[in-house]
Amino acid sequence: LLAPTEMSSPSLKTGAYILIGVGALTMLMGFLGCLGAVNEIRCLLGLYFTCLMIILITQVAAGLVIYFQKDKLKEELSRIVGNLIENYNSPNDDERNLEDAWDYVQRQIACCGWIGAKDWEKNEFIINQSMTVYPCSCSNSSKDFQVDSGFCNLDVPLNSTATYADWPVHEQGCMDGVEKWLKDNLGVILGVCTGVAVIELLGMILSISLCKNIHSEDYTKVPKS
Known about the structure:
This protein is an all-alpha fold. The chain is built from 7 helices and 2 strands; from the N terminus they run αααααββαα.
């Protein structure tokens, strides 16, 4: 069976760690920002500004890494999905979670395999069943819509063989499906990213302005000799 370590990649792990770090930093940042604003503590507002700036820089850096490393990332995803498909139907709970996630992708995007349905010809269980079963999440047949995962039986005579071309599945591969989805929703994605960046910039500007106001108030309170 495929070990869980083979189902991951350095780039995906790095991305996950970055997201976890940014999430933790965001929670800390919000707490410090509220505390600094309520109690008018300049050092906390300065720390809030610094955290916002780090998050913004991290987001820009992550976007650049994804853009310039997209070919490498595509290769790693191809390897990961290929291994997942080949060993699909594993009793291991960790791998079962990955398989459920992949089934969800195939159902939502209406795709089959990474390049196409032919990828599933490498699956051990399907080979043992003489290609007379197919992944239910790939199905384009109405009778399989209620089945979320696992394999569905192909209606063929007993002891006969079949090929992926005989399966009632989507012809589009998930790689093309994902790329098409990204292109179709590029405007929304860019709009959300731009909106988040603008909000972060406004937070930085407001924190600096509040710091200056606190500094001015402290200066006017100092008694003149």
